[in-house]
Amino acid sequence: MTQNATHDHQVPTRLMHVGGEWVDSLAGQRRDILNPARRGEVIARVPQAEAADVDRAVLVARRAFPAWRDQHFKARQLALLKAADAIEERADELARVTALDTGNALRTQARPEVATLVDLFRYFGGVAGEVKGTTLPAGAGQLQYTRHEPLGVVGAILPWNSPLMIAGFKVPAALAAGNTMVLKAAEDAPLSILLLAEILATALPAGVLNVITGEGATAGAALVEHPDIDKISFTGSTPVGRGIGRIAGEKLRHVSLELGGKNPSIVFPGQVTDELIEGLLISSRVHRQGQSCTAGSRLFLHREVHDEVVARLSQRLRDQVVGDPSEEQTDIGAIINDKQFTSVRGYIEDGLANPALHLEAGGLPPAEGPLSEGYFHLPTLFSGGDNSFRLAREEIFGPVVVAIPWTDVDDVVAMANDSAYGLAAYVWSNDVNLAISTAHRLEAGWVQVNQGGGQVVGQSYGGYKQSGIGREVSLEGMIAGFTQTKQVNIKITG
Ligand code: NAD
Questions:
Q1: Ligand 1: does its nearest atom lie under 6 Å from the Cβ of 102?
Q2: Residue 198 appears among annotated catalytic residues
């Protein structure tokens, strides 16, 4: 099925996907989608869903639920595996659309995101039969067992930073467990999600996955408030997540919140290898313009290696090619929008105005030349940091890293844990005992030792403290996050 797109002065309109059909918003309102790499360029228009559109999508998902739930798990498994193949077939197209609307560079970010999405569909297709309960040895006169039953209709809300990967954290898990969904794309980056809806329509029955576009305050809020939604699965900022948690609490509704991070990366003394420097480059998430909740943006460097790491990492940051996200040679693409670009600039200005900080790489964005035509920031490293500085406390969501020196392991663990957030952390040491004991002392939902890549399929993922509540991405997470347990006790007579 090909999406019903209309063109107005060469700007395509991409419609929402509800009940197996392409639909406009009932009020007919549209939103311009802008190119992060070229200020002011409209690349598409999408419907602005409102409460009535959410009603329509939830109704359709509710109607589709019993048939999707009541099948043998093999049917869901086949559908998810077919979906994975269909996504893989159109992987390059998905990556190009991601580069276009998110500004994430094609080679370093957009393609790997699609590859992770394919893996996640295959993984949850593979484990669809593992949504199994238990039986209790309750004697000959009793049959006592549990069932993990789907919750019903899941409302999922996505951010703009990695739409496809985060959809991959939610959609296949929720569907494998037997739920149906209404997925709201982020207002500034809906195009890859609408293309995903088109691809998934070839593998899923109509109504099982419904995709809407619209603003958080209208469409998002209507989804969260909707009386016929059984769970909200939210990824986004901590303030919005807190509000959603409050509403879910009032309504006693299931909720998972994947929120912000201000993640420590702790380097122990030892040889400064190229592998370490590349690991720090990857874990800083500069290749995602720092627009990653797992960015290792507080870089705690032991004084013995501090100067060498700062010098070599700064050089690697300066080597990165910042530019058009769709070009193969680009390492780092564009920041999503003007608001975020201005906010990141504010943090850099704050760093430059702080006499304790020293700019080692990057700095203010170019005011002229090709990079000034889009929302491009340079990968930036400040040394001389202190964990109390604003740059070390707030989530910048930009390519800005602050290096903080340390000497005592208890001190560095205390500084790492002195944050409102607790999403990810990185430990770099060749002393395996030290690395593991430090990993266990860190207040974070995900710790990596001597590596800094992205989430891998099947792993547990989620935050401590204000970084979130709930787990969904692993097999256990799927069962905990997308099912509810029913105990059945039966008397056997005769
Ligand atoms: P955001 O919270 O502004 O928006 C996220 C989504 O929520 C969007 O779809 C938006 O439309 C919707 N929304 C906004 N207000 C709403 C409301 N009142 N009710 C319902 N929905 C509403 O976040 P963002 O700026 O799009 O994304 C950046 C944030 O997301 C960062 O803080 C980042 O750390 C976080 N994030 C977390 C993870 C994770 O896995 N923990 C992953 C990616 C991004």
A1: no
A2: no
Q: Whole-model pTM?
A: 0.97
Q: Does residue 221's CB lie within 6 angstroms of at least one atom of ligand 1? A: yes
Q: Single out the residue of 215, 76, 233, 243 nearest to residue 166, CA to CA.
A: 233
Catalytic member of 187, 198, 258, 472: 258
Q: How close is the Cα of 63 to the center of ligand 1, in Å?
A: 28
Q: Which atom of ligand 1 is nearest to the CA of 240?
A: 2
pLDDT, residue 467, reads 98
Q: Is the CB of 156 under 6 A from ligand 1?
A: no
Cα distance between residue 198 and residue 115, in whole Å: 18
Indicate the length of the chain as a whole number: 494
Does 158 contact ligand 1 (Cβ within 6 A)? yes
Q: What is the pLDDT of residue 5?
A: 56
Helices (H), 36-72: 51-69
DSSP state of 109: I
Q: Which CATH architecture has domain 264-456?
A: 3-Layer(aba) Sandwich (3.40)
CA of 415 to the centre of ligand 1 (A): 27
224 lines ligand 1 (CB under 6 A): yes
Rg of the chain, C-alpha, whole Å? 23
Residue extents of the structural domains in the chain: 16-259+467-487, 264-456
250 is catalytic: no
Catalytic-role residue among 293, 360, 395, 472: 293
Rounded distance from Cα 237 to ligand 1 centre (Å): 4
β-strand partners of 257: 234, 469
Residue at 176: amino acid letter: A
Give the 3-state secondary structure percentages of the chain, helix then strand then coil, rounded to 5: 40, 20, 35
Domain 16-259+467-487's class? alpha beta
What's the CA gap between 297 and 12, in Å, rounded?
38
Q: Is 293 in the pocket of ligand 1 (CB under 6 A)?
A: yes
**What residue ranges of the chain have pLDDT lower than 70?**
1-9
Ordered DSSP codes for 20-36: TEEE--TT--EEEEE-T
Q: Which of 215, 229, 259 to mutate to test the pocket of ligand 1 (most atoms within 8 A of CB)?
A: 259
Rounded CA gap, 425 and 447, in Å?
5
For residue 231, the cross-strand partners are 154, 254
Tens-digit pLDDT profile for residues 166-189: 999 999 999 999 999 999 999 999
For residue range 41-77, what is the model confidence (pLDDT) as tens digits?
A: 999 999 999 999 999 999 999 999 999 999 999 999 9
Burial level of 281, CB count in 10 A (0-12/13-18/19+)?
Answer: buried
Handedness of CA 209, 241, 380, 336 (dihedral sign): positive
